[in-house]
Input
Amino acid sequence: MKKMLWTMVGLSVFTLGAANIQQNNIAQRAATLAKTINFGNALEAPTEGAWGMTLEESYFTAVQKAGFSAIRLPTKWSAHTQTKSPYTIDPKFFARVDWAVKNAVSRGLAIIINIHHYDEILENPAAHKERLLAIWKQIAEHYKKESDKVFFEVLNEPNSKLEAVWNAYQNEAISVIRKSNPTRAIIVGGNGWNSIAGLEQIVLPNDPNLIGTFHFYSPFTFTHQGAEWINPVPPTGVQWNTTSTSWRSGWQNWSWKSTIRPIDAGFEVTYNEGYAGLYLHNDTPASNVKNILFSTNQVLPLTITCLEKNNGNNNNPKGFSFDSKVGLNTIPTTACGSSNGNIRDILIMNNSAEAKPTWQLKSMVLETANGTISLLSSGADELRGELERVAAWSKKTGRPVFMGEFGSYGKADNDSRIRWTNFVRSTAEQLGITWSYWEFGAGFGVYDRGSRSYKTDLTKALLPNFKP
Output
């Protein structure tokens, strides 16, 4: 399951021109992933069934008949591998994955084998590097004779302490795989939980058989509303349509102890506790910002802080404290903490020990030396802008790109889920991005395992020609 993208540490910037890559039919092979479904919550659990999902042969048939082209198989190999050298994978577990591969390939479906939820390597990379490479050596040798319908994916969602070394680790894993699978298609992703920013900054070898990947859950307040594994649980009732207000592409909502709800003409903001905050972050700073302008409908005690880098409460400037006025508020960046006008983080905090009633943020604009930048946009513009960044990376590098996960949790209203899913899927296809929906039959799922039937409208948002 997904988590908040609290930290996104970029990798060393690397540019690989399309002319340097021999295509070697990777585009055709990548096209077989055009309509993929994730078999989530099954083999990615510590033991299959622990998260309520056990794979059945009938699920493979259902995927084939619906019109999907491939299956992504999230797999927690680390739970079935010895902790000491030679790090042998449990043969019974290997046989279970073999069963899944056979059931997919025999039906003409491609299948992606990945390493999922290797939690230990995220917190102690050095201690688990050798084990990661040993796992891949065994997987690669085990499946080296399989057809090109079998894809490998190095690691799901690199994050935390692994980010500092992920470039090197991923490239070493590729080298291990290449010893037994010289032309196998390998799916590779960047830091920040397979974020778009991580993909843009990825460092890769000159290997013609690599496919870039990213995960897409924007806006997070919509796609993960009511998700019980997130603390605090994001509030429900957030709707999505193409005209709903959203944050400008690249700006992420990192707010704390606050409820931020999009409305047609801005956002509703509720500070649920004293000193709660609206927090916007961008991996790429806005440059030469002179003023931050925002409109409110209430008088509120606020502190606004604007930073090029958030170093934590003890090391940051105190920001600018004031009582907002109804209407337009103009804050010079020199007053709220920026010495050079480069802004990556904007924090608008409740400067009171008490919770505050809901207020409306009607507009939010950065005034720069070269014009103004609105941080508010429509839902459609925000999503399209992010996906266009991915398409630009693909064009620049000459590599196919795969949206390995996208989806919305079942506690969102159904009409919004259908609109969002259809928009993301169709926009990705227009931009040449293949996709894999998260997921088949659990909390985000398109398939009702109880009735053994698809949720028709949501499935049609993915597969317009689907017939129940």
In short: Residues 249 and 385 are 6 Å apart (CA to CA).
